[in-house]
Design brief:
Length: 197
């Protein structure tokens, strides 16, 4: 039986991605301050948060912890999770008809080592008219999502092109994380790329 991986995140999407490939997951969500430092680079920002989350959760000797943080950027601005419908609409208007970038930093904390990684995905969104924006905001799907949309939900209809990892846009670059777990000798999925491990 494969070892359990502690996931330092309450994200149901991250948990689902990991469990779908056969990893045994135990959730211990980290609670940290996610405020960006002044002029902090988006990549450095998500990497710092992933590292801090991994270190913030309690772990027993020999346990492996995975933490991640995802953000959306456009025009050099970091778009976190919208707090209100008006903020969600403002973010979506920024993304409408343009390409933005989704960056996820992850950290794997093992018994003897730490491994960090990062993935960046370009997402080109179609132009959204006022009625579409209003309907999407009214759906509430934007709540709790970086950049105020969920590519695995209704907003998939808005996406014209994805350059890079699509699971990164969902919240975790799965192929990169699995490769890192193999590299550091961490918990392994029962299935990888459709072949029994």
């Amino acid at each position: 039986m494969t070892a359990t991986l502690v996931l330092a995140s309450a994200s149901p999407r991250r948990r689902e991605l990991l469990e779908r490939v056969g990893l045994r997951i135990e959730v211990r969500a980290a609670d940290i301050d996610e405020t960006p430092d002044p002029d902090e680079d988006p990549g450095a920002y998500v990497q710092r948060l992933a590292r801090d989350k991994a270190r913030a959760v309690p772990r027993a000797s020999g346990e492996w912890v995975l933490a991640a943080d995802t953000t959306v950027t456009i025009d050099g601005m970091i778009l976190g999770k919208a707090e209100t419908p008006a903020e969600a609409e403002r973010m979506l208007r920024l993304l409408s008809g343009r390409t933005h970038y989704v960056t996820t930093g992850f950290a794997i904390l093992g018994p003897e080592r730490v491994h960090e990684g990062r993935a960046v995905t370009g997402v080109r969104m179609q132009a959204l008219d006022d009625a579409t924006l209003a309907d999407y905001v009214a759906s509430g799907e934007w709540r709790g999502k970086a950049g105020a949309y969920a590519i695995q939900g209704i907003a998939a209809a808005f996406v014209l092109e994805v350059e890079g990892s699509v699971t990164n846009v969902i919240g975790l670059p799965l192929a990169e994380v699995l490769a890192a777990l193999r590299e550091v000798g961490g918990p392994q999925p029962r299935f990888a790329a459709g072949v029994p491990a």
